[in-house]
Amino acid sequence: MDRPHKTGWIYAIPALGLFLLFMLYPILYNIIRSFSNPKSLTANYSALFARPAFESSFANTLRWVVVSGICEIVIGFILAMLIEFYIVRGRAFYRAILFLPMVVTPTVIALVFTTLYAPDYGAVYGLVRAIGLGAHFPALLSNPDTVTYALIAVNIWQWLGWFVLLYSVAISQIDRGIIDAAAIDGASGRRLWTQLIIPMVRPMTYTLTIFAIIQALQQFAIVYIATNGGPGNSSQVMGSYVYKLAFVDNRVSLSASLATLLFGLSFILVGFVFVLAKGRFTISAGTTG
Amino acid sequence: MVGRIFKTRTDKLPAVTRGHGLSRIGAHLVLIIAVVLSISPTIYMIDISFRNAVTAFDPSLIVFNGSTLSNYTSVLKNPDLPHFFINSTIVALSTVALTIIFALLASFAISRLHIVGGRLLFLVISTALFIPLASVLVPIVLLLKNIGGLNTYWGLIGPYTAIGIAFAILIIKGALDSFPTELEEAARLDGASWISVLVRVIVPMIIPALFVVAVWQFLFSWNEFYLALVIMTNLSRETMPLAPLYYEGPFLAEPGQLFAILSLVSVVPMIVYLLVQKRFVKALEGGALKG
């Protein structure tokens, strides 16, 4: 049975074929196109770097990865910890409600938050006015300094439930007897956290970190709908700038260079976490056995 | 090794936190604040969809008087609305079916038939997990343009399946690797073909994994916007996430109607979620944590 099967590859052909057609070919196309400029090998890249919007989209993408990732991991862990260690009844309720935003269409979310954030008629303005600070309400989406963070907040709002759920599953699978034993042996609350619980959920932390990185690099819909990268290009991310270069500015070769950089950035960031993790990951969905 | 210190959950709290009544109330308070923040935008959306032309601009989270159904009656009159719904249904269900079939066959070939280069194949396909959509989007559109795939269902179903397949193989192969092969070997000795072993013995064992893949892939392909925006440019082929674009401009003076559309777009994924969430969580919990 362990002998390699002669015709087994037939089963793998559909999956491999789709991968080659819609993943590998596009990546190679972008790489080759980005380096084929009649002037010089790197002329597309120099032209891309010369555009101010590039710097803005690159910096914003890094902000998305760092701010979104850290908030999702930290808040997700804290909420999951509260659910698993302090709540007897209602665990399923909390996890289910917090997860709900995950399933809402991003275009819908973008328009709902555009209205929520709106000065004059948005509900956030309404709350600020109710506590008497209406006159100081910032127009979050039209201020270049706040717009990216306002959009990152939307993303955290949407994805937090996923982090809570997966951390919650990871924490619930720790044997409580071990924690009890450590507590009886006199381990303080802080030592229980830093030396027992956090290390035990570390494989999940690595998995979720990679998840957060990829998810932040995927950004398009919320930025495109809520601000279209504006005001100016102040909320542009690499995902939305690829679209603008290719379909609005008609600069497909520049968009291919940016797409290649985005691909490279993803592999560097994810590769870095892989090295840190040394193979300790957890991805699971069970069998009925 | 790590496996031994994990076991199934109990409903008891650990000694370290047991009996701290005050901290339990505090935990509930924090979680209730989180729940309120999490649910309010959705309630706000539904509430505005029932507001009249005047209260629609009220900066309150919820307006109690002047509710009306007229926003829904006017948007439902739009003859294009069923197109969005039908297109999304066709694309999402086909994507789920193809992703599961293709991923199952590939996982089976790698995990059970031990095909030559199976490990390499798994690694190569897994890299798709780390490829942002924006970094493959434009070539996909150019490719589909050349082979007549724009504004066709398969023009979306193909890339969606390609995107989902890496995650699907990761989950399904993981499930296959985690249970023993005795039953299959017995079936093989009885003269069953590989295909009948796959369908009759293996599939029933990994239903939770297939379920997770189906839910994930359905929500992804129902909600996906970026590819749909550039591939479906013909109104008759557009999917649900594109519907709000038609109401955003002309209906900005009528937030009630825009929000009625937004609520209608959200209703399918929310119902699907409410129907499956218990089983979905159970399937995630059922998987053994791998150290």
Provide the number of structural domains of chain A.
Answer: 2
Using the alpha-carbon principal axes, give the shape of chain B. Answer: globular
C-alpha termini separation of chain A: 22 Å
Q: What's the total count of β strands of chain B? A: 0
Indicate the CATH architecture of the largest domain in chain B: Orthogonal Bundle
- β-strand amount of chain A: under 5%
Summing up helix and strand content along with how strands pair, one would put the structural category of chain B as: mainly alpha
Largest interface: A-B, 118 and 130 residues
Average of per-residue pLDDT values of chain B: 86
Assembly type: heterodimer
Number of helices of chain B: 12
Poorly predicted runs of 5 or more residues of chain A: none
Uncertain stretches of chain B: 1-10
Mean pLDDT of chain A: 89
CATH classification, class level of the largest domain in chain A: Mainly Alpha
Number of helices of chain A: 13
Q: How many β-strand runs of chain A?
A: 0
Gyration radius over CA of chain B = 24 Å
Major sheet description of chain A: none
What is the radius of gyration of chain A? 23 Å
How would you summarize the topology of this molecule?
The complex is a heterodimer of chains A (289) and B (291).
Chain A lengths: L8 H27 L7 H7 L2 H35 L4 H9 L6 H12 L5 H8 L16 H26 L3 H9 L4 H12 L1 H16 L3 H6 L11 H11 L3 H26 L12
Helix pairs in contact in A: 1-13, 2-13, 3-7, 3-10, 3-12, 4-7, 7-10, 10-13, 12-13
Chain B lengths: L20 H29 L20 H7 L4 H31 L6 H9 L7 H13 L6 H25 L4 H8 L4 H12 L1 H17 L2 H6 L11 H6 L6 H32 L5
Which short descriptors sum up this protein?
heterodimer; A: 289 residues; mainly alpha; MetI-like fold; 2 domains; 13 helices; 71% helix; 0% strand; globular; B: 291 residues; 12 helices; disordered N terminus
